[in-house]
């Protein structure tokens, strides 16, 4: 993709190569594909090709998503869990119907306390319902965050009507929040729309000192800047 962005090769040829990886089981490969498709989707977000690239993402990621499913399988390793979160998050953000419906169902059960989301599924579910939610979805998220116990982290300056709050204080308890979940939610908001990018960028600027203190010296500060 860097060569395509530089005009050295055709973007169409790059997409054809990506299609060839549809049966690839390796997490690192899918992570790279996801990153590059995300860059391309951002570049096309304000063009007539926006929906086309979303269709392409759904077509490429749906076979691996169907194979992985939503629940861990006996004997699978850590990378399989990471891959599941990556793939479901990608499909959810791209508007894959079955993934969106399941994310909404699991989020509802999570909110109602019927079945608490596992740590590996929290980011893809939150980001999916945020991306395709409405005002009632946002209200529900904020209520969930408001009733969580106080975190040992110092509070960030988050507007009460901001979905970014969920990146810091999700249900059921802030101490269970993984650092990568916070970065993922910020990235999810940033990747959702032009307005989302502006809101996420303002959020990061306003809370830079706290975020930097949390993640300095680790890979997450680099990932935060990239998203």
Plain-language structure description:
- This protein has about 230 residues and is mainly α.
- It folds into two domains: about 1-95, no CATH class; about 155-225.
- About 65% of the residues lie in helices and about 0% in strands.
- The chain contains twelve helices and no strands.
- Helix 7 (about 120-130) packs parallel to helix 9 (about 180-190).
- It starts with a helix and ends with a helix.
Q: Order of helices and strands, N to C?
A: HHHHHHHHHHHH
Largest sheet: none
Approximate shape = globular
Radius of gyration: 17 Å
The share of residues in helices is 55-70%
Q: Quick one: how many beta strands?
A: 0
How far is the first residue's CA from the last residue's CA? 17 Å
Mean pLDDT: 78
Give the tally of structural domains: 2
- In terms of DSSP E residues, the strand content is under 5%
Q: Which oligomerization state do the chains in this entry correspond to?
A: single chain
**What's the number of helices?**
12
Helix-strand category: mainly alpha
Poorly predicted runs: 149-161, 168-176
Topology, please?
Blueprint lengths: L1 H4 L5 H9 L7 H17 L6 H19 L9 H16 L3 H15 L7 H13 L3 H12 L32 H12 L3 H13 L1 H8 L3 H8 L1
Features:
single chain, 227 residues, mainly alpha, 2 domains, 12 helices, 64% helix, 0% strand, hydrolase, ERAP1-like_C_dom, metalloaminopeptidase activity
Briefly summarize what is shown.
By secondary structure, the chain is mainly alpha-helical. It contains twelve helices and no strands.
């Amino acid at each position: 993709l860097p060569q395509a962005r530089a005009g050295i090769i055709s973007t169409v040829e790059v997409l054809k190569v990506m299609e060839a990886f549809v049966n690839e089981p390796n997490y690192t490969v899918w992570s790279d594909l996801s990153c590059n498709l995300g860059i391309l989707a951002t570049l096309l977000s304000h063009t007539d090709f926006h929906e086309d690239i979303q269709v392409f993402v759904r077509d490429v990621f749906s076979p691996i998503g169907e194979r992985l499913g939503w629940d861990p399988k006996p004997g699978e390793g850590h990378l399989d869990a990471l891959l599941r979160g990556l793939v479901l998050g990608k499909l959810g953000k791209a508007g894959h119907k079955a993934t969106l419906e399941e994310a909404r169902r699991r989020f509802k059960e999570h909110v109602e306390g019927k079945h608490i989301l596992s740590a590996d599924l929290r980011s893809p579910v939150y980001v999916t319902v945020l991306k395709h939610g409405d005002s009632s979805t946002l209200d529900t998220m904020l209520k969930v965050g408001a009733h969580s116990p106080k975190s040992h982290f110092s509070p960030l300056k988050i507007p009460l009507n901001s979905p970014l709050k969920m990146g810091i204080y999700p249900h059921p308890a802030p101490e269970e929040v993984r650092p990568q979940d916070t970065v993922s939610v910020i990235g999810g908001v940033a990747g959702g729309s032009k307005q989302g990018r502006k809101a996420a960028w303002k959020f990061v600027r306003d809370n830079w000192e706290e975020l930097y203190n949390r993640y300095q010296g680790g890979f997450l500060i680099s990932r935060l800047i990239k998203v």
